Structure formats: C-alpha cells, structure tokens
Amino acid sequence: MVLTKINNKFFNYYIFICFSTSIFFLYHKFQFPTDWTTSEWLINYQGGFTRRGLVGEILVQINTFLNFEIRNLVFIFEIILLFTYYFYLINFFKKVEFSPIIILIIFSPLGFLFPVTETEAIARKEVLLFCLYLFYLGSILNRNQKITYLILLIGLPIMNLVWDGNIFYVFFFIYTFFLSKININKKEVIIFLITLIPYLISFIILITTKSNDQMLEEMCKAINEPCFGAMNFLDYSFKDQMNYGLSRLKIEYIFRYLFIFIICFFPFLLIFYDQKNKTGIFLGYIVCVIPTFIFLYISFDWGRYLNILYIFSVLTLIFLLEIKKIQIKQTRLVIFINEMLKDKSKLYLIYIYFFLYLFAWHPKVILTDDLGSLPYLRILDRIFDYLIA
Fold this sequence. Notes:
Elements: H1 8-30, H2 36-42, H3 54-66, H4 70-92, H5 100-106, H6 114-117, H7 126-141, H8 145-162, H9 170-179, H10 186-195, H11 197-207, H12 213-221, H13 238-247, H14 251-273, H15 278-295, H16 302-322, H17 332-342, H18 347-359, E1 361-362, E2 372-373, H19 375-388
Antiparallel strand pairs: 1-2
C-alpha cells in the first residue's frame, strides 16, 4: 500500500524539496524592488523605535561595517533562516511514526507546502517564531529547564520586537509547558509567571507604539530606498488596522476560510477531543486557536495566518505524541480510517479522499483570492516559467 511506504526518509526528501524550491522562488522574488517580504526585514530603528524593527536594525548596523548592499544582506539572512528552520524540522520529526492520519496532517496543503505554493509567504518573520518554538519544544524534550526558561524570559520578548504577530501564538508556549509537567508545584508556576514579565512589558510597549511620517522617512534614508510594502503600514494603530481589515470583509470570504479551517483543522480537533484529559488538552488547544481569529480582524492575508496556526498545531501534536500526553491509535478518526483501509471494497474511497485533499487544492494568502488548484503542478509550472524567462 502506498501510504505505508511514506516514512522519515520520504519526509526528509519532502522537506529538502520545500527548502530548495523556496530558495529558488525567494531569489526570483528578491528581484522585485517592492517585494513585501524584503520590506518587512528592512524595517529598522534609524528613525526611532518602531514595531518589527529589531532584525532590520541589526542588518543596518552590520551593513555599516561590511559596506554591503543591504538587500543582499537580507537575502543571505533569509537563506540562513530557512536552512535553520528546515534543518530543525527534520530533526524534530526523526522519531515520528507516519501513520495515515499523520500523513494526512503533515502533507496538508495548508502545512509545510503552503509557502512554496504561495510565494508571498516564503521567509516571512513567522519562520523565526517557528524556529523559536522548535528550540523551545526541543529544550523541554531534552529536559533542559534552563534553556526553556531562557526562551520564555528572553526569546519571547525579543521575538515581539521582531514581529508583533508573535502575541497571538504565545499561548502555544504556555500550553505545551504545562502539559509537559506530570506534577507541577507552586514554585514552578511562580517561576514560569516571572519569566513572562519581560514578554508582557514588551507587549505593552508594542501596542502603544506608533510611527509617524518623519520616523518613516529617516528609517528609509538608512537603507537608501523609498518606503515600500510593510514599511507603509507602521503608522497604523491597532484600531486603524482593524478598520482596514473590516473594510475589506465580505461574507463569502468568511465562509471560504471557515471551510478551509474545518477541513484542515478537523483532525486536530477530533484527536484532542478524544483524549482522556479532555479538559486540559482539548480546551487548552481551543484557547491557543482563538487568538488567530482576532488576528484576522486586523489583517487581510488570512491564508498566511491560518498556515501559521496550522504549523503550530502540527508541531504541538508531534510534541504531545513524543511526551505521550496524547494517544491517536484509539481515537475515532484513526479507527475509522483503519477500518476503511481494511475493507478492500472501500479502500478506493480513502485513496480518492487523500488524493483530492493533498493534491487537488490549496488555500491562497489573501482573503480576496479564491481557492487554488493542483498545487504541485502549479509549482512546477512556476519553476519552468522562471527558467525560460
């Protein structure tokens, strides 16, 4: 059976193809002077403190010593970031048992394939957050409590300064911390809460920070370019962003993304719901999911934020399997799939479903765009277009 042949080696090849294809697309994206991804990484503090400016400021300071074209510096940084992310993904998944349900989850078009099909999502700032989460989960698995607390104490506040969207995914750090504990005492809870104080301070600073035209002008002078892309949204307050998001909202977009959410996140919801510790595992996961829907009110790249939530969900699921906090073999969804696989008269239905779900469609980045089709074919088509251009 085809599904039984998918293993860790296959996953490693899959991730390598995602990495190499991402670098190829990133290089061609990089040629556009107004590329949004590049604009995000170029935000800096040269005009004063602003949101999302930490990495850009570091790159500006490095550039003063190297006298390098700063856009090339951004491109090199993005390659290093993607390599780090995919390298740690391979390491994180090395013990995973690739059952049919895990295959369905991992190879979903909303998962690791998403930024390859939707190149606007390649090497965005959430990749740095994924790396931080992987380091964090790794520190818990390795029982390195000092590193765990350092990530909470220093890593999360720094990540806030890199990308304020981090705010909506911090609950996954809290969720996995407490689920990893067999018995947690008051001392551990107090230490945990203390480590979150710098994060809360940075959060308050961020939500009260707003850039002005003069700051943006000085910021863009530092990179010898006019402001473009993400830079032009730095003077938007939280209220401004919400008004902007709501002005573009239509009922058809809500139904479309509700459909995407249901078919992609249904396996997580059912697996977490079928656990013995339903209160801690299922309700805790719901708490982690809810903030993303708040995020949708202040943004228009809904597909990207569902992808971020999906990656966090996948990593969390694998982590909970690793520490044996959840079991999937006895969940209703897994039992149903296994029974279908045993019944030769219904086997073709499973293959049709897997094929349609994994290969026939994919979500788009922007909420106004309709669903895409045949993602792997479109990736190949885009590669050929670039090669013959």
